[in-house]
Amino acid sequence: MKEKQINLDQMNLSKSVSKHNFYSFLMHAVFLALAKNFMDVDTIIPSMLIESGGSSIHIGVLTAIMLGGSSFTQLFFSPYLQNKNFKKKYLLLGINSRIASLAGLSLFLFFSLSLSSDARILFIFILITIFSFSGAFANISYTDILGKSVLPDSRKSFFSISQVLTGSGVLISAFFARRVLMSRQFPENYTFMLLIAAVFLGLASVGFWRIKETVASGYKIKGLKAFLDAIRWEIQSNSKLRYYLGFVNTLGISVAIFPFLILYAKENFQVGSSEIGRFLIFKVTGVVVTGMLLFLISKRIRYRYLLYSSVLLTLFIPLFVMALNSSSGFFCVFIVGGIVYSLYSISINGVLLEVSDNQNRALYTGIAGAGNILPALFPISAGWIIKAYGFNTFFIIFMAVVTSSLFFIYKLHCTK
Question: What is the pTM of this model?
C-alpha cells in the first residue's frame, strides 16, 4: 500500500531554514490579510451576489462551494499531490489561479450591467468556483510544506502570531474596504474591491516563492485502489483522525453561518453597504483581539480548550440574533463571529498537523477535505430551510449540529 521513496531522516530541517520559512509564510499571511477584506467570503461575496439578484438558495449553494465543497475536492487532488516529492510549484499554481479568477471576476462585474441577473449569477458562480477549487488545490501543498518546513515547536507560535499580524492587516484594510464599498454604486464598488484583492494576493504569492522546501514527502501511492486502501487504513488505524473528521463535520458549519447572517440583516433590518462594511470591521476586531491573546498564551493553552470555547461562542450567535428586534446590537454578532473564526482556524490547522506527519500530511489533508461533507451540504439545505420554514428553524438545527461536536472534541483528547 505504501512505498517508501525517501529516507526523511537523511533530510534534516535546520533551525535557520525553518526560521526562513517561518517568515516566508508570515509574509504571505500578511498580504493575504490585506486582501481578505476585499474578497471576504462571509460578507463581501454574499453581499455582491445579493446585489446581483441572488436569493437564499443562491447564497446557500455559493457558500457550499466556497466552504465545504471546495474542501471536498481535496480528496481528488490529494492522490496526485501525495505522489509529488516537492510541492512548491503546485502551491504557486493554486495561488496564481486564484489571482486570475479574482481579476477575471473584477473585469466581468465592470461590464455586467448589460447582462441579465441570471447571467450575472452564472458567471459569478463559475469564477468563484475556480477561485475556491484553486484554493483547495493550493491548501494541500500549503499544509504539507508548512508541516515539514517549519519545526514542530514553532508551529503553534506561527499560527498565533499569524493571527495577530494578519488580524492587524485585516483591521487596517477593513477601513479602506469599507470606504471603497461606500464610494461607488454597484457594480463599480465590487469591481474595485476584487481588483484590489487580486493585487494583494499577487504580493502574497511572493512569500511562497521564497520558501525553501528541503524535505520531501515520505511515500507514494500508486493507483486508485492503493489510494482508497490508504484512506481506509489511516482512518481505521488512527482514532484521532476519525474524531478529527467528526468535529470538522459538526463544528465546521460554524463558519458557514455568516452569509446567512448578512441575508438575515438585509431582509429584517434593510442594511446597506455602510452597515456591511461596519460588520466586516467588527468581525476583524474579534479576530485581532483573539489572535493577540492566543499569541500571549500559546505555550500554555491546548487546542481542546480552544475548540470548547469555539462551540460555546458559536451557540451564542443564533441565540443572540433571535433575541434582537433591531439592527443596533447586530454588530455584537460579528465580534463574536470573529472570535469563533479565529479559534476555529487556529485549532483545525494545528490539530491536523498534530494527527499527521511528514509522510502522510498531503493524504490527511485530502481526507480532511473529504470529511467536510456536512459543511458542504449544510449551506445548500440551509437556503432551502430558510425559504421554507424561516430563520428560527434554521438557527435551531444549526445549534443542534454544533452541540454534537462536543462529543468528538472530548474523544479527540488533544494533548497539545
Answer: 0.65
Q: How far apart are CA 168 and CA 174, in angstroms?
A: 10
Question: Picking from 11-15, 171-175, 344-348, 385-389, which range would have the lowest pLDDT averaged per residue?
Answer: 11-15
What's the confidence (pLDDT) of residue 330? 78
- Give domain 12-412's CATH architecture: Up-down Bundle (1.20)
Instruction: Say if residues 295 and 342 touch (Cβ distance below 8 Å).
Output: no
Half-sphere exposure of 191 (CA within 13 A, CB side): 13
Q: What is the 3-state secondary structure (H, E, C) of 158-221?
A: HHHHHHHHHHHHHHHHHHHHHHHHHHCCCCHHHHHHHHHHHHHHHHHHHHHHCCCCCCCCCEEC
Domain segments of the chain as ranges: 12-412
Output DSSP code: residue 96: H
Tell me the pLDDT tens digit for each residue of 244-264: 888 888 888 887 788 788 888
| Closest by CA position to 278, among listed 323, 326, 328, 239 | 328
